[in-house]
Design goal:
Elements lengths: L5 E5 L2 E2 L16 E4 L11 E9 L2 H7 L6 E7 L2 E18 L2 E14 H7 L12 E3 L2 H4 L13 E5 L8 E2 L6 E2 L6 E6 H11 L3 E3 L6 H4 L1 E4 L8 H7 L2 E5 L3 E3 L3 E6 L4 E4 L8 E2 L4 E3 L4 E10 L12 E7 L2 E2 L5 E3 L10 E10 L4 E8 L5 E3 L1 E10 L6 E3 L9 H12 L1 E6 L4 E6 L3 E5 L4 E5 L7 E3 L11 E3 L4 E9 L5 H6 L10 E4 L4 E14 L2 E4 L13 E4 L23 E5 L11 E2 L10 E2 L2 E3 L18 E3 L2 E3 L2 H15 L2 E6 L3 H6 L5 E4 L2 E11 L7 E7 L5 H4 L2 E3 L5 E2 L6
Parallel strand pairs: 13-31, 34-48, 36-38, 39-52
Antiparallel strand pairs: 1-2, 1-5, 3-49, 4-7, 5-6, 6-7, 8-29, 9-12, 10-11, 12-14, 14-41, 15-18, 15-28, 16-27, 17-26, 19-20, 20-26, 21-25, 21-28, 22-23, 22-24, 22-26, 30-31, 32-33, 35-47, 36-37, 37-51, 39-40, 41-44, 42-43, 45-46, 47-50, 48-49, 49-50
């Protein structure tokens, strides 16, 4: 029988519920919880329930008519059973004559991972950063080349977007010297994740994310050639007006500046760019400036004899010869009208603009008002402020998070009571640290701890085994970027792409494949750039290569293309001490010849690594320098695929009440009949019914050498050099 003490609270206020004939509240709570479906699609624990409640005076005051998100909890006998986020799905109305009244609400109750997924669905990466740095910060503070994710959320590195602009030496001593002006800013990924969840009131708990490795995952943020309008609004755009009627004196042939007395709009980051005392606008940044001027004239006859009025824009005190308004005696005077003119000029930071006039008539000329609107378009200039919220476009946070889930086989679990979201790779994995020379096995989302379900199984209800219908081959790969001609050329004649890896299932349909592919991040290949090696250095430096043309066939690009898909890289930065020189040395153009600078290492795969301890962002395992680099498939997916390959799913009914549900975690493995299982799914749990709940258990497995041999890795390397690949 349904429990009479079931209550629903929204925003801590009790909601009136529909009741049955006995007065028992009706809440259709058949809840399903999954950690991933039986075909291996990675999902997180989620719950979604829809209920209908009456539109009573109490409910209307709590729910209102907006689709805003509200906290909810369901209590069973005074104890919380389900918590999360509520949102109105539909409001039902009835018409009474000419009046329409609400009579019911359909409400979605979202819990566990569903709750924060909905809350973050429209969040942009640009919403999650307030970082502003000057592009020349690396010259002022070279620490920008050092990986310090706990001190700041940005760094700088060298990415080869085009050929380096500067050279030294000749013949065998010829070398490129990258410049600070060719650096690319990076943003660490971890702060995006932490800020996103903090934004909606949640906290992230993750040993993986707080590790030294994951803390140094970065996303390059290329500096665009043209900045968006919103950036210019923030830094440049200004509008001023003349509010007091002004009379130009008789016979004033000298140019004089119009002092606009009212600032209609100032750029927030440069509010004093226009000085009303001098009438000058000082350009904050290099770029193009459009200056729109308008004058409103009184209702007076045109002066006689013929006269001229000239309004011009002066740049740095010199007439730009852009006469905004020219009136001669043979033209009709615009009595009572507003006349407008425009000038488009290029200026450097620090240049000044002012509006000057010339009037040489024998009678005074008056205007009743005037405006000057300055609209800038900042040019890419070394030293300019890099305001990242204007450089991230419309990239969505959840799109990035989904790709991180794909790359590292992440699982998520949410404690709605504490608002803590746990994020970890599914299974235990090897965590390496090159600096310390360590390689440790780290517990993943699934704990080694088990819960004994033997006494909880209801063996009187039907149980059984099933085997999932899985594809014959699982393919893990990055999406391609159509603008990356070099990477696409490398893959032209290969069945398996760069960084791609596959796992062959036993006794499955070979004609069917399942592709697990990134949709946010594209692959990044590298260049082993021996021509950028510093004089006397023996290591060819490696740089990320995002080239506008096929670098191997034509390495002469002079114009970069930064309109590319996002990339994920590991930023080791400049390394010193025992690792000094492992990434090679370069000569930075701003430094004196012969001054060697350690390469700020940034990579998806470090092909210079001889230890096998640097992180690898390739799904494919590779043998480099006689050392095996373990790819992401073998590291994070192999155990999952072996479980699916065995495909032993046990279906049992389990004694499971509201307290069990509140304390339940998919992280704990199940144990019964001398076997360990991963709990995959909980079906139709209902806290107001005293009946067992259906559980699906997937037999745990440990990969063997034969399982590793079922992995098919790419034979392509993600690094190129001139004329040949290595």
């Amino acid at each position: 029988m349904a429990n009479r003490y079931t209550k629903l609270f929204i925003n801590n206020s009790p909601i009136d519920l529909n009741t049955d004939e006995q007065g028992t509240p009706i809440i259709p709570l058949n809840i399903n919880r999954l950690v991933n479906d039986l075909e291996g699609n990675v999902r997180g624990d989620y719950s979604r329930v829809s209920i209908t409640v009456p539109a009573t005076k109490n409910n209307i005051s709590i729910l209102g008519s907006s689709r805003s998100f509200k906290d909810f909890r369901i209590e069973i006998d005074g104890l919380p059973d389900m918590l999360g986020t509520a949102q109105i799905k539909k409001i039902h109305t009835k018409s009474y004559g000419y009046e329409s009244l609400n009579y019911a609400y359909d409400i979605n109750l979202l819990s566990n991972n569903t709750s924060w997924t909905v809350l973050l669905r429209d969040t942009l990466l640009s919403d999650l950063t307030t970082t502003v740095i000057n592009w020349d910060v690396a010259t002022i503070n070279p620490l920008g080349f050092i990986a310090e994710p706990n001190l700041r959320d940005w760094a700088f590195t060298f990415i080869k977007w085009k050929e380096w602009a500067n050279t030294r030496g000749a013949g065998l001593n010829f070398r490129y010297t990258p410049s600070f002006e060719e650096t690319t800013p990076l943003l660490y990924v971890r702060p995006f994740i932490e800020r996103a969840f903090n934004l909606i009131g949640y906290t992230v708990k993750s040993n993986w994310l707080s590790s030294d490795t994951a803390s140094k995952y970065v996303m390059p943020v290329p500096i665009p050639d043209r900045f968006p309008y919103s950036y210019n609004e923030e830094y440049l755009n200004t509008e001023v007006s003349l509010t007091v009627p002004t009379t130009f004196p008789v016979n004033a042939p000298v140019n004089d500046t119009i002092l606009y007395d009212n600032i209609i709009k100032a750029a927030p980051q440069n509010p004093t760019a226009y000085n009303p005392l001098t009438g000058q606008y000082t350009c904050p940044l290099d770029g193009y400036y459009q200056i729109d001027i308008s004058y409103t004239y009184p209702l007076l006859p045109f002066p006689s004899p013929p006269s001229s009025f000239i309004s011009s824009i002066y740049q740095n005190g010199t007439n730009t010869l852009t006469g905004a308004f020219l009136f001669w005696g043979d033209l009709q005077y615009p009595a009572g009208k507003t006349i407008r003119g425009t000038a488009l000029l290029y200026a450097n930071a620090g240049d000044t603009f002012e509006n000057k006039y010339l009037w040489d008539a024998a009678i005074p000329l008056g205007i009743t008002g005037a405006t000057m609107k300055i609209t800038g378009e900042a040019s890419k200039t070394f030293g300019m402020p890099l305001d990242f919220k204007f450089m991230l476009g419309d990239l969505k946070f959840l799109d990035m998070l989904k790709d991180l889930k794909i790359l590292f086989n992440l699982a998520f679990e949410t404690n709605e009571a504490s608002k803590v979201v746990t994020i970890e790779p599914k299974d235990e994995y090897v965590q390496t640290n090159r600096l310390l020379g360590t390689s440790n096995l780290v517990e993943g989302f699934y704990k080694n701890e088990c819960k004994d379900y033997t006494p909880l199984l209801d063996l009187n209800k039907n149980s059984g085994k099933e085997f999932p219908n899985i594809e014959g081959t699982y393919i893990n790969k990055y999406q391609s970027d159509s603008s990356d001609e070099t990477a696409n050329w490398l893959e032209e004649n290969s069945n398996i792409g760069v960084y791609e890896s596959r796992f062959k299932m036993d006794s499955s349909d070979d004609s069917k494949t399942k592709i697990i592919e990134t949709k946010f991040f594209a692959k990044t290949i590298h260049v082993s750039d021996f021509q950028a090696k510093g004089e006397g250095s023996i290591v060819n430096p490696q740089f990320p290569l995002i080239y506008p043309q096929n670098y191997v066939l034509d390495p002469t690009a002079t114009i970069e293309n930064t309109n590319v898909k996002p990339r994920l890289l590991y930023f080791a930065g400049q390394r010193f001490g025992t690792l000094s020189g492992v990434d090679g040395f370069i000569e930075i153009n701003e430094f004196a010849p012969g001054v060697l600078t350690p390469v700020p290492a940034c990579f998806a795969v470090n092909y210079l690594d001889e230890s096998g301890l640097d992180p690898v962002l390739s799904f494919s395992s590779e043998i480099v320098n006689n050392t095996k680099f373990i790819g992401l498939l073998e590291k994070h997916y192999l155990k999952e695929y072996v479980r699916l390959n065995i495909g032993d799913i046990s279906d049992y009914y389990v004694k499971f009440n509201s307290i069990d549900n509140l304390n339940f975690s998919f992280r704990l493995k199940g144990y019964f009949f001398s076997q360990k299982y991963i709990i995959q799914e909980i079906n139709s749990y209902n806290p107001i019914k005293d009946t067992p709940t259906q559980f699906k258990f997937l037999l745990e497995a440990t990969p063997t050498e034969s399982d590793i041999n079922k992995i098919q890795n790419s034979t392509l390397s993600g690094v190129v050099t001139l004329l040949t690949t290595i």
